[in-house]
Amino acid sequence: MQYDPIEKSAVSKLKVKPGLADYERARKSFSWWDVYRELDWLPGGGLNKAYEAIDRHVAHGNGSRVAMIWEGKNGEQEQYTYTQLKERSDRFANVVTKLGLKKGDRVFIFLDRVPELYFAFFGVLKAGGIVGPLFSAFGPDPVRDRLVDSGATILITSPDLKRKITRILPDCPDLQHIVIINKGNRDPKPLEGNDLSYEKLMSAAAADFKIVNTSQYDYSIMHYTSGTTGKPKGAVHRHQAVVQQYLTGKWALDMHPGDIYWCTADPGWVTGTSYGMLAPWTNGVTQLIYEGGLSARKWYQLIEKHQVNIWYTAPTAIRMLMRAGDEPMKGINFSSLRFIASVGEPLNPEGVIWGKRVFGMGIHDNWWQTETGAIMCANYQSMEIRPGSMGRPLPGIEMGILDDKYNPVGPDIRGLLAVRPGWPSQFHNYWRNADMYNSRFKKGWYITGDRAAMDKDGYFWFEGRADDVINTAGHLVGPFEVESALIEHPAVAEAGVIGKPDPIAMEVVKAFVSLKPGHEPTPELRAELMRFARQKLSSAVAPREIDFVPSLPKTRSGKIMRRLLKARELGLPEGDTSTLEED
Ligand code: AMP
Q: Structural domains in the chain?
């Protein structure tokens, strides 16, 4: 039998189905060095995510395994082995190298979930670049903010997505090349200006590439994430994050070679790269990638047709499936499923119970965020799920609950959710914003921005955000970003944005707007503002509701008091209003 580095792994100490005792033992005897040793590292020295996810399998004689099963939104089907992924990503590494990419240069990808997105992603990593995937539903403003802030030199996109952002391209001075992927000739128009054809570049490129010798500390991926103030910040991750992505794929998502795995997240968000690329492929599984959006019947058919064993999704999707009822699952056989997990928002206990009824198994919630790069705490396969809890920390990870002075508190007391720094997939900076990065570390802890509690058995329970950041359908939205877009409309004087609780999406974005003199608060203006924000941002980020108000509550220093807007919206006590500016 072929040597398989994953199956023979020393980390299998924790077994396929670790019991509570195994978990306790693993916590005590755990060493990240064991996991570092499980990876191959680059043949010439150094560490590169693309090598660990793809080339390693080919080097070990497993290149003929299917890495990707792809279904397009128009029903197209494609399949790629690890050898084919290696060949495509090698070619793309040659393409970007020829375009002048140097180690550390930023390349952004603005594409739907087509196979070429994945080839390009790994090609950039192989060439030593930093790759930034962008959610394809974004409007022009978020794309501009990210391209400008990162100083990206190459953008990879499709004809229709390029058209959507044409007006902001002149605002991006660092951008030197635009590579156009015309998947299946979906948009058969000639290329514009200096745009480059992906297909032509790829067929001219050599099929073999020697990976640039990146070290574990070199930057590899950046994902923009929202905070309370300012525009989204680029959380930068290093190649060594792959160590934890690999381990959590195995331990928290129960991946094994031969498994068919489906992650429903888009690579524009961190779950779509850490668990839609790196964890599954470092673990040698076959990954289903579906380009289309959520449709209950289609999703159930995909599970049955591709015999999905492991399914990683999000609470909003689960609530939407629950709402769709039993009709769409009629005649579908779910017996291939072995493990279901979810992330991004709190998973209601009803979701766990629904999973048991419909699929015969509970749904395993786990917790992490863009900055942590990988799963930090989880409900594991072997342990009893505590419905409503995010589970227990991964061995090798220390999480705690702190009071407002950053001192640890005991069990069952709510406080700030914090992590001891130094985990392998820890972000290493916010791009060009070291002050913001440093502000997240206090008294030897990384402050996550969430509030939670830990019970006496070490399970963590999410309470909410500690700041004004909105979580809508698992996507974090910074109120400032939405307010900035709204006040660009000529009728808007001021805007304040909050998250309003919603039974499906957890929160929806709600805006309060005061108008400039001469503008009337009409239903037509409200509809126009919603359209305006959707076009600039995306429907995922734009407000779902807008209320007109004569003025917004502000502190004496002029800061909009979103907390007060929210309290008034929800009919809650207004709390301390001593800093409120009187009208
Ligand atoms: P992001 O950085 O966009 O991936 O969002 C991370 C945030 O989503 C976390 O800081 C939490 O606020 C929220 N989140 C992620 N997973 C969970 C979970 N299992 N339960 C509750 N909230 C979660």
A: 11-454 (3.40.50.12780), 468-570 (3.30.300.30)
